[in-house]
């Protein structure tokens, strides 16, 4: 017991040094206390509901980790290298068990730009079977676009780090007395979405298949997303960690606002197409009744409407 306490004290001291070093470098690390324990052994960092900026260092997604008897699994790595470093420091304030896995829920930079931190720590990176191709195809674009958002310094530190192993359907991960079910989904939010379900606490890490507060973002298939929501809802979770929004919410009720938004978007775009309304005119009115129900609506709804029009036009 004394040895365990000594090891944890040593890791806490190391975490403090990591955060101090980042601060001195002009990149303040997120405090480890930002991770809260939402269920026994399940910790989540609340992402800011905002676009990525140099000030928030891309820390806009909910990311978390699960501690088993033998090992730890990290779910998503954050939106920058310092964000990933702060997450690793937070783990080390909780346990000195090895971080055996990093699970990427999908390709977007706010979820994977800390990957190299966990690769260096020895974690095996898991992703959807389509994730390697998706990241490889977008690597240069992401580096350029994120430089404009989080700044050249932070973006320049990132080395796009691909998964070591991929999941085509479902994989069970044993952390020691605790099993995580990693499931690959068909095209929805993106074409490479994964979820992680902790059987012990019945906690579902949904990635961006579930948005709360933050306007949903369509980068895959509207029809595919809607078709898979009932399957997603059938997962016997008690709580969900959405990709954006609160750190946890009761399941499956938490997905109802998103389903409503996607259904309204689909109905409005289908009506516009049936009425012969061109894309440029349809976008401004699509899902207008949802405007006051979502943050960042004006930033993402026009993109969603454009993507939905392109998909539904050829039904």
Return the average pLDDT rounded to an integer.
91
Strand content: 15-25%
Please report the distance between the alpha carbons of the first and last residues: 64 Å
Order of helices and strands: HEEEEHEHHEHHEEEEEHEEHHH
* Strands, total number: 13
What's the story with the biggest beta sheet?
7 strands, mixed
Write structural notes for this entry.
- The protein has a seven-stranded mixed β-sheet. A six-stranded mixed β-sheet has the order 8-9-10-11-12-13, with no helix packed on it.
- The chain is of the alpha/beta class and 315 residues long.
- Helix 7 (222-233) runs antiparallel to helix 8.
- It has helices spanning 2-24, 81-94, 109-112, 115-120, 131-150, 152-157, 222-233, 256-274, 279-285, 297-312, and strands at residues 35-39, 42-45, 63-67, 72-75, 99-103, 124-128, 165-167, 170-174, 179-184, 194-198, 203-211, 239-244, 249-250.
- Residues 1-33 have low confidence and may be disordered.
- The longest helix has 23 residues, at 2-24.
- Helix content is 40%, strand content 20%.
- The chain is built from ten helices and 13 strands.
Structural features:
315 residues; alpha/beta; seven-stranded mixed sheet; six-stranded mixed sheet; 13 strands; disordered N terminus
Brief summary of the model shown:
The protein has 315 residues and is an alpha/beta fold. The chain has helices spanning 2-24, 81-94, 109-112, 115-120, 131-150, 152-157, 222-233, 256-274, 279-285, 297-312; strands spanning 35-39, 42-45, 63-67, 72-75, 99-103, 124-128, 165-167, 170-174, 179-184, 194-198, 203-211, 239-244, 249-250. Strands 1-2-3-4-5-6-7 form a seven-stranded mixed sheet. Strands 8-9-10-11-12-13 form a six-stranded mixed sheet, with no helix packed on it.
